[in-house]
Each structure stands twice: as C-alpha cells, then as structure tokens.
Design brief:
Radius of gyration: 13 Å
Strand order of the largest sheet: 2-10-9-4-5-6
Helix content: under 10%
Oligomer: single chain
Strand content: over 45%
Low-confidence stretches: none
Number of strands: 10
Shape: globular
Length: 114
Amino acid sequence: VQLQASGGGLVQTGGSLRLSCTAPSYIFSGNRMAWYRQIPGKQRDLVASVDRFSVTTYADSVKGRFAISRNNAQSTVYLQMNSLKPEDTAVYYCNVNPPYDPYWGQGTQVTVSS
C-alpha cells in the first residue's frame, strides 16, 4: 500500500499550507509517522515526525514554522506549514519513520513563490 499525501499547492512567501495523509490503521497505530520532502536531483529528507504519544521531532530548517500532528482515531497525520519560504518548495511525502520503501506514494507538490 502507498501512503498518499494531499494538501499541497502554490503559495506566496510567508503563506501557509496544511498537508494531510491518512494511512491504514495497521500501519498508523503504533508507528512513528513522518513527513519527508524531496527537491528534484536531491535526496529525500526528513522534515518532521510524531510518535503515537505525539512526541515530535523537526528538522532544524523548519523548527518554529512547521507543526506535525496526528489524529489516532482517524489514522491521519498532518503537517501545518507556516511562514513558508521558497526553499520549502519540494514534493512532500508521508511515511513511517524510519521509512518503509513500499509505503512511498506520489507525494504532494508544494511550491512557494518569492
């Protein structure tokens, strides 16, 4: 099964977007969930993660601007992105953490215009 992210789009610098990803409960429950992003030609990087107790981690580049959360009842993980910068432009993916290759979906494109 591939995990599908949604909520991306085109936004101006300083704007906000909220990404979401719903996973089957057998994947979601008990696993640390995470958001990753990839710029063409570069490796896919971890952006943020959240465990089942809502303990979070963030990449330094997004601390204070992004917030990851999860709804265990709905098996959904969110990424609230505020104060977006052009360097946040990427395809964003959700997966477990550490990632499991079969779960990679197509991601959702986030484009921040300057």
